[in-house]
Amino acid sequence: MGRHQLTDLGPQRDEELLLELPVERPSVDHVLHLATLLQQEGPLRVSDAAERLGVSPSTAHRLLAMLVYRGFAEQRPDRRYQAGDVLRPAAASRAPVALLRQVALPHLHDLVDRVRESVNLVVLAGTEARFIASVECDQVLRVGSREGRTLPAHLTSGGKAVLAALPPEEVAALYGGSDDVGLPRLRREPALVRKRGFAINDQRTETGLTALATAIRDASGAPVAAAAIAMPTARFHRDHVSGWVAALNRAVSRVEGELRSAA
After folding, report:
1. Which helix (H) or strand (E) holds 99?
2. Whose CA is closest to 223, among 183, 150, 174?
3. In the chain, which residues fall in CATH 3.30.450.40?
């Protein structure tokens, strides 16, 4: 990206840009990625979008204009772009997603190097666990990236870790209108997570996948995310859990320290 001069382009000639600029092969992937960023991380400048996608500002502006044209984005008075009506039905996360990614990613890479398994960063969005970052390990048999996916929070290790760290009344309020998850389970599983000190998903969301997670807390002590080690179930062994959890806790402590400094 160093070769690009990142400048924000104005809203003029959006439709002309759509017609004049050549279509690149990865354009569909870029558009989908950009729509996901707007939905999960909030407003972006053209320069932000260009940097995240690894494209020129003119290409980023063309992609944003396409999203605006189709209702997936809209431009704010400050010239940043935000999610449009098409993307808004999804539950919003109260977590500072952009800051979490910036702070956590270096430590997630270090954790992957240490445990040689893939690692995910997860936030709570309503009753869903949203994967906002993934770092894959280099083993041939590995868990692939889950970035951008959402799964039921009460089934994932990261979702369980965050739910266990929330006040019980807040968890009950989240699931008050849900017939899929009973209150006894909502009381039993978080209690078990708090007793163990970590959450586990043993093939609850995907056959052959096991994951361990602990919550990440902000400067006030509130849980804002979770870090999870995900591995093929064939490599999971209970004798290794204490080592994995210790490595996970070290990474989480470093992330929490940086969140406190940022606050």
Report:
1. helix 97-115
2. 174
3. 97-262
pLDDT above 80 for 197: yes
All CATH 1.10.10.10 domain ranges in the chain, comma separated: 14-87
For residue 231, what are its two tokens? 């591995």
> What is the residue whose two structure tokens read 């699931």?
175
SS3 of 231, please? strand
CATH architecture of 97-262: 2-Layer Sandwich (3.30)
Asked whether the beta carbons of 204 and 155 are under 8 A apart, the reply is yes
Amino acid at 60: A
Could you tell me the two tokens for 227?
């870090």
State pLDDT tens for residues 218-252: 999 999 999 999 999 999 999 999 999 999 999 99
Task: Evaluate whether 204 touches 189 at the Cβ level (below 8 Å).
Answer: no
Cα separations (Å) of 7 from 4, 46, 133, 172, 255? 9, 7, 26, 46, 31
Query: Which fold would CATH assign to domain 14-87?
Result: Arc Repressor Mutant, subunit A (1.10.10)
For residues 70 and 28, is the Cβ–Cβ distance under 8 A? Answer: no
pLDDT over 90 percentage in the chain: 62
Tell me what the pLDDT averaged over the chain comes to: 86
Contact 160, 201 (CB under 8 A): yes
Location of structure tokens 């868990």: 143
Using alpha carbons, list the distances in angstroms from residue 239 to 174, 236, 243, 246, 261.
35, 9, 8, 13, 35
CA-to-CA distance for 225 and 7, rounded, in angstroms?
Answer: 32
Can you tell me the distance from the alpha carbon of 122 to that of 253, in angstroms, rounded to the nearest whole number?
A: 16
